[in-house]
Design a protein that fits this description.
The protein is built from 14 helices and five strands. By secondary structure, it is α+β, with helices and mostly antiparallel strands. Strand 2 and strand 3 form a beta hairpin. The radius of gyration is 67 Å and the shape is elongated.
Length: 476
């Protein structure tokens, strides 16, 4: 627009400076002005159009900008809302994942607990089945282990009824194991026949039966779950005690705390009368030796009891008489007990009271030495028997072992029972020899101590008498 104005001004100046131009120039000037006006008008219109377009563009831009801002704000809000929704959804997903994991873990734990519970139930059922089979009460209640067999063997989850049945069986077992019962029951007697008898059960430890005049112990077999009578009846003492208890006549019951082991041993037990012939001829020699030694010991005991005297009391009676010089009274007092070695020694000393001290002490020692053989009579024989008895037992054992090895040579060593039986019989003589030697040695020791005490007592009282006699001499 400035260029157009400048061109118009120049044109006017040219027209003014050249007035000589003619009418054409005026026409041209008029035309130029008209064109200028037209150009200015056009320029003005174009300017207005351009300004209008600019305003419209600006308005549109402003409108678009505001719309864009609104759209951006809206999008930002939606974006924020979307982010919040995403965060909420992610949080919800995390919560659901955690719940899923927790539920999965809970399901796994419940499954494991269920399997553990089933395993415990089956294990307890197997334990209960083993317990019931080993319980002697099962012989009185046939078929009570059937429910436990089914429960222990099935693969599905046990029912409450089955668990209740197992609990009832266990409670019944507990109750019965602490009770004493007498009831009719079927047993297998000593001849292998089935019979009905009065069966006494003392908890889980011992069972006995009474059938007519026969009374004995029962053994329980967990394989067949039945009672079997011992093949050998107990001694009459045991049978009498069992019968009295079963009849209510005695409060004392015989009980095997080993649950049958001692009763089985009872059937294998042999008395001394049954064992003696198995030891061979040397057994009788040992018995004769032991019997003879016991007779000698008994004779020595009787002898020592017969010559026993209260030495202190005797000296208390003699010393006042000796101090008074009443020797006759002393001798009479000692003669009244002449069966006692001490009295004879003291009497011998009083008879030799007139000798010198050395001679009188020698006389007393001679009297004591004279009494010793009677006191020590048979002691050496008893000691010899105590030494010989175990040697005889050893001789019998060696002889029995030789016989056992001869049997092994002929028949082989394939049967341990045969070997153990032969060795047991061979050792019987050693046992009996030691059984004879030990009391003999003890008796010999006690007798020797007693005799040594008697000799020491005689020596002491002899010295006391010599001192009393010489005290009286010095006074005279």
């Amino acid at each position: 627009m400035k260029i157009i104005k400048s061109a118009a001004v120049i044109l006017i100046l040219v027209l003014l400076c050249i007035p000589a131009f003619g009418q054409d120039m005026r026409a041209r000037s008029v035309e130029a002005q008209r064109q200028k006006a037209m150009l200015e008008q056009r320029a003005l219109e174009e300017k207005q159009a351009a300004q209008k377009e600019a305003r419209e563009a600006l308005a549109k831009i402003v409108s678009d900008r505001q719309a864009a801002k609104a759209a951006v704000a809206d999008l930002n809000q939606k974006n924020s809302e979307t982010k919040e929704n995403i965060a909420d959804l992610q949080k919800r997903i995390s919560e659901l994942e955690a719940q899923k994991a927790a539920l999965k873990q809970e399901l796994s734990n419940m499954d494991a607990q269920t399997r553990t519970l089933v395993g415990h139930v089956r294990s307890n059922a197997r334990d209960a089945l083993a317990l019931v089979k080993q319980s002697q009460q099962s012989a009185l209640i046939p078929g009570r282990a059937d429910a436990l067999k089914e429960l222990a063997g099935q693969s599905r989850f046990p029912s409450i009824e089955q668990i209740d049945a197992m609990a009832e069986i266990l409670l019944d077992e507990i109750a019965r194991s602490g009770e004493v019962r007498i009831e009719k029951a079927s047993i297998v007697d000593r001849l292998g026949r089935e019979a009905v008898a009065d069966v006494l059960t003392l908890g889980e430890f011992t069972a006995a039966y009474s059938m007519g005049d026969e009374t004995g112990f029962l053994l329980y077999s967990d394989t067949s779950q039945r009672f079997f009578a011992l093949s050998k009846l107990p001694s009459s003492k045991y049978r009498k005690a069992l019968r009295a208890y079963m009849n209510g006549e005695s409060p004392v019951a015989l009980m095997d705390l080993t649950k049958g082991a001692a009763l089985r041993q009872l059937t294998q037990e042999k008395g001394l009368a049954e064992r003696l012939p198995q030891g061979g001829p040397i057994i009788w020699v040992i018995l004769a030796l032991g019997g003879f030694a016991m007779l000698l010991v008994l004779e020595r005991v009787v002898f020592l009891l017969r010559i026993r005297v209260n030495a202190s009391k005797l000296m208390a009676q003699i010393q006042p008489l000796a101090q008074n010089g009443d020797w006759k009274e002393c001798l009479d007092l000692l003669k009244a007990q002449k069966s006692k070695p001490l009295a004879r020694v003291l009497a011998w000393g009083i008879k030799h009271r007139h000798l010198e001290r050395m001679d009188m002490e020698n006389a007393l020692q001679e009297a004591i030495l004279g009494e010793i053989p009677a006191l020590e009579r048979f002691l050496s024989i008893i000691a010899m028997m105590a030494a010989v008895a175990p040697l005889l037992g050893l001789l019998g054992t060696v002889t029995g072992m030789i016989n056992t090895f001869h049997v092994i040579t002929y028949y082989g060593a394939g049967d341990p029972k045969m070997m153990s039986g032969g060795i047991s019989e061979a050792l019987l003589t050693t046992m009996l020899g030691l059984a004879a030697a030990i009391p003999i040695m003890l008796a010999h020791t006690l007798l020797s101590r007693r005799i040594e005490g008697s000799i020491a007592q005689m020596e002491e009282k002899a010295v006391s008498l010599a001192n009393t006699i010489y005290a009286v001499r010095e006074k005279e």
